[in-house]
Amino acid sequence: MTTATFDLAADVPKRSSAAGIAVVLLLPIALVNAIGFILPVLNLARMSFNEALPGGGIAETLTAANWTGLLQDRFYLDLIVNSVAVSLGITLATLLASYPIALYLHRASGAWRTFLTVLVISPLLTSAVVRTYGWIALLAEQGPVANVIAAMGFQPPRMMFNTTGVVIGLTEILMPYMILSLMAGFGRLDPKVEEAARTLGATPFRTFWRVILPLTLPGIALGCLLCFVLAISSFITPKLMGGGRVFLLATEIYDQAIVTLNWPLAATLSMLVLIIFGAALAVYSRVLRMIDQG
């Protein structure tokens, strides 16, 4: 046998040992995901094909009535469209508010950057419930924001217990996630490329539009995906700031499961949210491929 043959035979036990170690290391997280995520999702999928009985009972008979009724009911069709539209609007507002901050943080350095990063992360240390109640106090009819607008001579718009309040509250709550996602995706942004564009005579706006923005598209895509998923699945802020007048998928799931005790319909709506998550992930993957090819 040649030396190469002996080396190949010696590598086989090493590869087998490495594969065994990988299986042992991955087994705990695989079990956790199977017990904590996959099995509950499969249970929800099965429950979505059950029949709801009066008083909160569930008939074990399999039926597609929940899905057909969901797609034929005008209320639920409007609910789905409104939930997606509001979540997209929140995502866009969060992106516009967070992008300048993330870009500035990316260019900062030293202790100043550390201090600003801590300020960005600090809202995550506060409960979303507390932050939502803070916005309720700020946006109330006689709150500080309304008083400032009235002092300027304008009629304060209604900013509470409607979609406007929900958008404002969720935009602020999701900004740290967007900023961190943008900063994570700004690795391709090289200051030397910007300097080269300015040296060649590009205006600041043209430099941003043709150089900075294309290089930061991966971060934008990541931040938009994360914020859209969090927005469409958010419950606390829409429930409190919507005042029961803003109907979204998450609030409707709660009402069906806890108020009317229609668990099969709540399971159907939950599976619909997962389908929307999958569609958003597919769009994200497609966008990343387009960015890489472009």
TrEMBL record:
Keyword Transmembrane helix attributed: yes
One of the GO BP terms on file: transmembrane transport
Protein name as annotated: Polyamine ABC transporter permease
Places the protein is found: Cell membrane
Superkingdom of source: Bacteria
Domain ABC transmembrane type-1: 80-284
Pfam family, one: BPD_transp_1
Organism: Phyllobacterium myrsinacearum
InterPro entries the record matches: MetI-like, MetI-like_sf
Annotated transmembrane regions: 21-42, 79-103, 115-140, 160-186, 207-236, 263-284
Lipid bilayer topology: Multi-pass membrane protein
GO cellular component, one term: plasma membrane
Keyword set, alphabetical order: Cell membrane, Membrane, Transmembrane, Transmembrane helix, Transport
Family: Belongs to the binding-protein-dependent transport system permease family. CysTW subfamily.
